[in-house]
UniProtKB/TrEMBL annotation:
Record family assignment: Belongs to the neutral sphingomyelinase family.
EC identifiers of the protein: 3.1.4.12
Residue stretches making up the Endonuclease/exonuclease/phosphatase domain: 15-277
Pathway: Lipid metabolism; sphingolipid metabolism; Sphingolipid metabolism
Name of the featured protein: sphingomyelin phosphodiesterase
Length: 411
């Protein structure tokens, strides 16, 4: 509505790639990020992959003057890596950890140990500017892709996208504006991002921005970045866009993206970029309107049904693979148990005096027993893990089937 006051909200989002002992020039880059945030004075800062709580504490001390409110989300074995800095009061927080997050035996990837999550800080923005909007902001990261041609984690990432969409729908009812920033590890046209946007009604700041400045096509993993693994980008010479700022208005507000920027290589005055990802910066205008905004779902129900169907198909593929893995690990556990029983029978026979004319090979017997015990423990653990994986995939498939039926039955 013309004449209504407008809240101008500046948002900064970055995957910091701050892995202690592994990330290149991490302390220097964390200091550089803090200096830039203090100088630029954004309203809301959403960071991912801040794996060290000491790095977060250093940032919190440095930024206390311009970002008096902050929160670090703890999750998993080594932490979620998510943190938020805000000029507005953070009224409450919530962390939701995805039910599926890769495989514990894939040590070279490590996503399972991170406890990938979505962190939700609820705040009230613009109290001093004439516009008061309960603001629901989310910082998150989904499971990495690693290999696009043979993406073994696609079903898990789709489960995460579906849980994230459900999380947003059920937690945003009391908010006027929803903001989401993070590394979604999905290309803009991937089924997961289409499912998330379609099911929640979130809008892409890059697609909606009046002005854009930065890497071509808004890419956030680019070959020119000195920290980027160039081999991963061979099929994409311009880079890929996997970091997003998404938003929507829920009640009597409108949100427009005035400007979107990405960083482009080294930070000003330095020889290194902030991270192996480019940062995303958005300027949003939030304004009260006369009538409440429409529902998130509506005219695009048929297109959304196609997206849900595609996602459900991929989840079904993952479900079949998980069942196969569960069967294989269960069979291995049974074989290891049978081997132990045979060894126990042989040992009892020796103790009973059978075959006493030949010496009992104690060393070989013990080594074989330890091997069988190790295989039994490993196979049992894998069987339990894949059993849980089957349950989660099956549950998500059921939810998608019900959602699909509801969409198809709408008049």
């Amino acid at each position: 509505m013309e004449g209504e006051p407008t809240l101008r909200l500046r948002i900064f989002d970055l995957n910091c790639w701050a892995i202690r002992y592994l990330s290149k020039r991490r302390p220097e880059r964390v200091r550089l990020i803090g200096d830039t945030l203090r100088r630029e004075g954004f309203d809301l800062v959403l960071l991912q992959e801040v794996w060290s709580e000491q790095d977060y504490s250093d940032l919190r001390v440095k930024l206390a003057g311009c970002y008096p409110f902050s929160h670090y989300f703890r999750s998993g074995v080594i932490g979620s890596g998510l943190c938020v800095f805000s000029r507005f009061p953070i009224l409450d927080t919530l962390l939701y950890q995805y039910s599926l997050n890769g495989y514990p035996y894939m040590l070279q990837h490590g996503d399972w140990f991170c406890g990938k999550s979505v962190g939700l800080p609820g705040s009230r923005a613009g109290v001093r500017m004439g516009v008061t909007a309960p603001l629901l902001s989310l910082s998150l990261q989904l499971h990495a892709e690693y290999c696009r041609e043979k993406d073994a984690y696609l079903p898990h990432r789709l489960v995460q996208a579906w849980e994230l969409a459900q999380f947003i729908r059920h937690t945003s009812k009391a908010a006027d504006v929803v903001l989401l920033g993070g590394d979604l590890n999905m290309h803009p046209e991937d089924v997961g991002i289409r499912l998330l946007r379609g099911w929640t009604g979130l809008r892409d700041a890059f697609a909606e921005a009046t002005r854009f400045e930065g890497c071509k096509n808004g890419c956030t993993l680019v070959p020119d970045n000195c920290f980027t693994d160039k081999s991963e980008l061979l099929p994409f010479p311009l880079g890929i866009r996997i970091d997003y700022i998404l938003y929507k208005a829920i009640s009597s507000f409108t949100v427009k993206c005035e400007e979107l920027k990405t960083t482009t290589g080294p930070a000003p005055g330095t020889d290194i970029p902030f991270s192996d990802h480019e940062a995303v910066m958005a300027t949003l205008h939030i304004q009260r309107q006369g009538q409440p905004a429409g529902a998130a779902l509506g005219t695009a129900d048929l297109a959304l049904a196609d997206v849900v169907t595609e996602a459900r198909t991929e989840v079904g593929v993952g479900l079949r693979e998980a069942r196969r893995q569960r069967y294989s690990s269960g069979r291995m556990a049974v074989l290891a148990l049978l081997l132990l029983l045979l060894q126990a029978a042989a040992a009892l026979g020796t103790l009973a005096g059978l075959g006493a004319e030949q010496p009992f090979p104690k060393l070989s017997f013990c080594l074989l027993a330890f091997l069988a015990l190790g295989v039994l423990a490993l196979a049992t653990g894998l069987h339990l893990f894949h059993t849980m994986e089957v349950k989660m995939l099956h549950g998500t498939e059921d939810q998608m089937r019900m959602a699909l039926r509801a969409l198809q039955e709408r008049p």
